[in-house]
Amino acid sequence: MNFRTLDRTDFEILHLLQKNARLSNKQIASEVQLAPSTCHERIKILQSSGILRGAHADVDLRAVGLTLEALFFIELAKHERAVVDRFLNETESIPEVRRAFLVSGRYDLIVHVAVKDIEHLRNLAFDRFTSQPVVVGIETSIVFDSRVRNELPFDVLEMSEGSSLRKRRVSV
Questions:
Q1: Among 33, 56, 66, 152, which residue's beta carbon has the most beta carbons within 10 A?
Q2: Would you say 4 and 172 are in contact if contact means Cβ atoms under 8 Å apart?
Q3: Long-range contacts of 31-40 (CB under 8 A, 24+ apart)
Q4: Is residue 99 scored above 50 in pLDDT?
């Protein structure tokens, strides 16, 4: 396995892309004071190493007719790795599922869904979740409002880990 060291410039590139994934390579290179070819190579390495996994559009769910968001708190009957992995894979394939979390505590999974209305939510819960033999319990909470932060806390990481943002080894 090859290792590469992340430096401050790599973290600056990540920071810029998290704020605006539409930036051109030329704009990023200018911001981090690199030649465009060097910047492009760094971005390719960040992608191939799995650090930079993609860029996504932030869609207004209400504008496309998904006016209700909810969280399903799911309790599973079995906690065997194969059962949990299969259930997570099936959950991930459901179009209404925005995100699924395997968690510790009272519930085993928290699943964030976006649906058209309360009837859609009810049908989704019954048809895709409670009908699964591995599901022994489900509670639903309606999301009234939410806030998302997509940027990494680089300042906090720097304070807690000293010089870790200057050099960090990653698999390439």
A1: 66
A2: yes
A3: 34/9, 39/13
A4: yes
In DSSP terms, which residues pair with 72 in a beta bridge? 111, 140
CATH number of 3-56: 1.10.10.10
User: Distance (Å, rounded) from C-alpha 123 to C-alpha 154?
Assistant: 42
In the block, tokens 């880990």 appear at 161
Give the mean model confidence (pLDDT) for residues 35-62.
92
pLDDT at 165: 47
Give me 75's structure tokens. Answer: 């309790």
Pick the CATH number of 62-143 from 3.40.720.10, 3.30.110.10, 3.30.70.920, 1.10.8.60: 3.30.70.920
- Give the HSE-up count for residue 114: Cα atoms under 13 Å, Cβ half-sphere: 14
Which has the minimum average pLDDT: 7-16, 141-150, 161-170? 161-170
Share of the chain above pLDDT 90, in %: 71
